[in-house]
Amino acid sequence: MTQEMQRPTTADTGWFTRDRFGLFIHWGIYSLAARHEWVKQRERITDEDYQRYFDHFYPDLYDPKEWAREAKKAGMKYFVITTKHHDGFCLWDSDLTDYKVTNTPWGEDLIAPMVEAFRAEGLKVGFYHSLIDWHHPEFPVDGLHSRRDDEEYIEANRHRDVARYREYLHGQTRELLTRFGKIDVMWFDFSYPDRVWGGKGKDDWGSEELLAMVRELQPGIIVNDRLEIGGDLKTPEQYQPVAWPEVDGEPALWEACQTLDGSWGYDRDNLDWKPTSMLVRMLVDTVSKGGNLLLNVGPTGRGEFDPQAVERLRGMGEWMRLHGRSVRGCTASDFIPPPDCRYTQNGDRLYLHLFGWPFKHVHLEGLAGRVEYAQLLGDASEVKMLVVDPDQRAQNTTMGGLPSGTLTLELPVQKPMV
Ligand code: JFZ
Known about the structure:
Elements: H1 14-19, E1 21-25, H2 30-33, H3 39-42, H4 47-55, H5 64-74, E2 78-84, H6 111-120, E3 124-130, H7 151-156, H8 162-178, E4 185-189, H9 202-205, H10 207-217, E5 222-223, E6 246-247, E7 250-251, E8 255-258, H11 276-287, E9 292-297, H12 307-323, E10 341-346, E11 349-354, E12 361-364, E13 384-386, H13 390-395, E14 407-410
Parallel strand pairs: 1-2, 1-9, 2-3, 3-4, 4-5, 8-9
Antiparallel strand pairs: 6-7, 10-11, 12-14, 13-14
4-nitrophenyl 6-deoxy-alpha-L-galactopyranoside binds at residues 1, 37-38, 189-190, 237, 257, 264.
């Protein structure tokens, strides 16, 4: 990802840093292959063979109101949908291609009803749009494995003109940002500007003009940073950064994007689902570093969330019901938490998250005399505070060696972590 500066922007970021938690949705005809959204590339499936997923796309159980309800119950406040992924298949009725949902057996636009349903539940709207396109006839063959000056690469692309693809990309982006009302996030994906190895980047996409058009059409929109020219939003993917990510020495607007099971698209045979407790920790860890969490669901080809996904979303929702105050409106704290803990803070409210349990005492450096009252968030039960004097501290095995200024909390040993 680019480290370039985030230039002056019209982006409205207030809601974003307040809301903190969103739903990513990866959905397309690859959901029928049901083993990853990169299946066409990974398994070198020909256009002809991939066509079967187009010909059989019929999500008869698609109920975007249900999706929106699940997202809202989970405590999410925005969503980002793949309008087109790398395979080039479009989920809306674009004028610029035939490779779209309205030409499948389903025959209807999927995006408008989705946008409407999520808005009705009070969620903000984000569009993921792939820069890469394995279907478009003018898109130079993805040279991830060949140099741009290889005979083979040149021959394969003799009749392809990236300028025409660029026009298509800009035209489709214009459709997306003019047909569905206010769009809050634009999530382009992605640049890989290694020219030697046939990568693609800002000149191929026309990133400068594209970004200018996006801002002109949707002045408040937040744009991610995958156009290779910076942007409003950093998007580390499938890992938690060790600290608040920076751009030019300044803390950046950022969003961790994470899967539930290691795949973005629906993956039928995956047994490796992350436990809800891990997902909660990811959310807390992210907010403790000043970021948002965009958690992904890959709906099935019939248009439903996998029961495993629903179980996790509901678990998150139950945690958020009781602990949402420690996430929403919160950001990083200047205080340093004890080992295996995180702090989040909202004004003068400091939230301590314990990733390990049980503790008898937990020692908070620098907080002696600064805390008026302490309680467990889940049930508002008081937590006793004490400041141990230095002599006593030296004699007490669970408190030895603590610096002065340490505030000690006495915790109930039997209370579960979340
Ligand atoms: C991209 C997609 O390829 C993937 O299918 C999914 O949509 C994900 C959200 O985004 O994956 C990337 C893109 C960029 C990097 C890594 C994975 N990167 O630059 O490190």
